UniProtKB/TrEMBL annotation:
It is a multi-pass membrane protein. The keyword Nucleotidyltransferase does not apply. The chain crosses the membrane at residues 47-72, 79-101, 107-125, 137-155, 175-199, 211-231, 251-272, 284-301. PANTHER family: SODIUM-DEPENDENT PHOSPHATE TRANSPORT PROTEIN 2B, SOLUTE CARRIER FAMILY 34 SODIUM PHOSPHATE , MEMBER 2-RELATED. This is Na/Pi cotransporter family protein. It is found in: Cell membrane. Residues 350-430 form the PhoU domain.
Amino acid sequence: MQFSMILLHLAGAVMLLLWAVRMVRTGVERAGGPALRDVLRRARGGWLQAVAAGTGLAVLLQSSTAVAVLAAGFAASGIVPVSVGLAILLGADLGSALVVQMLSFDLSWLVPVLILVGGALFLKFEARAVRQAGRILIGIAFVLLSLHMIGEATAPMRQSTLLPIMISYLRGDFFTAFAAAALFTWLIHSSVAAILLFVALAAQGVVPIDVGLSLVLGANLGGGFIAFWLTRGQQAVEAHRIPLGNLLFRATAALGVLFALQLGPFPAALFGATEGRQLVNLHLAFNLALVVVCLPFTGVMERLVARLVADAPATNASTADDMPASRASALDRSVTRTPSLALANATRELLRMGEVVELMLRPVMDLFDAGTPERIRRAQKLDDEVNRAHTDIKLYIAEVNRGAMTPAEARRGIDLTDFAISLERAGDIVAKNLLVLAQETAEKKLRFSRDGWNELVGLHDRVMANMQLALNVLVSSDLESARQLVVEKERMRKLERLSHDRHLRRLQSGRPESIETSDIHLEAVRALKEINSLLASVAYPLLSESGDLLESRLARGAPPQEKTVHVPV
């Protein structure tokens, strides 16, 4: 019974550790997503720059896997070459080891401070960046708390009669310990959490240093396999080659070191005074050596993985990478005499239409940065599906309107038709404005200034987030989300004005990049703002019905203006 309670406490502590690491990563991604991706874009300058970018991002995200997935996505877009992506991943693994190094110190005194400050930031402020900073601080506090819980849960295991038998077996079968650690790391999808767990066990005297070395090496192999597994579904071969090359680097090094350790006693005492500290330092030394040894061979590995993962057949070149899978329309005409069911079907089809618009909009910034004519044409071709869905939805709802409907159902039909028109217009802006501008940028080989590029990426990310919010409002009719969507519309208007003013100041300073891309920059900003406004239109019927939508306060005799929204913030 006692042993089962120990395992229960240990499992709870490990789950808290996994959740806390994910919480920190989510906060960093939401607070600085555009900046993080821009770091990877700038990493194309050389090996050392790529290693530094990977290291920094892994420290911020507390995950080398997250960096690997980002790098694979950029490789699929043609922005990052495979050899540079491999250098980024080598740096990311080093950054992950640095995270373990920092979290291994006794910082339990910080837990209440981090929870207090982080909770206040998250609960008392509305600004997105401040709230995410609070999320990050709370996540770090939970990481430290979980490590303390792991130490308490494993302390009684030292008196277990079963433990010496298990340790004796693992000492005699180092490869089983190595393989089990690799499998465990892959199962929990976090090398940071796995290494911290093994270090905590070693610090409690549960795991001796020789077994701990096999576990740490296995965790390094398992960490490389996570990214390879997560990117297996991507269609672009470049997205597979980078994680595969990194996995081959790590597998070769980990197995080589594992078998080398069996040749004689290892001077682990040189790496620290305690077994826990020794494992942490050895993990860092392994990843640092991996960077030094493997970095010159990234070009060789690029050629090797190109042989292992062949290019797609030429016949598939015309297929749209992001084209949604073909499926039957949700517009079932057998239920048009039952308005409630028919409108539900129209909502489903409208949601699918929104997802196609999202697929068109998502790669826009990548296409501005490294778009090819073929990729731009494939993205533009999705607009045909948007137009078809728009026509089908309008005609379907018109057919439903011919039957008997309640006033609420009639209003809902009008609202769905209006949003279909908005989405169709948004698709046109992407296809005929943004993608045309991306093609012009590629043909003329233009480059935005760093400040201008950061502004565009930030606006694009905000529109993508609001796209998700709009589709949520469409399906759930959630009033709070509708209010937030209209608040975001006002923020977008201010950001568009701010970007416009900053761009004019850059023109006055005579920056060549700003002068060359002036028209494109201004048109792209306007297009993103218009798309965001069209998305926000889904919130107005809901806010009008709830009483949050008020008429403008106008002086008598003033010309009529658009309605404004009073949103409690």
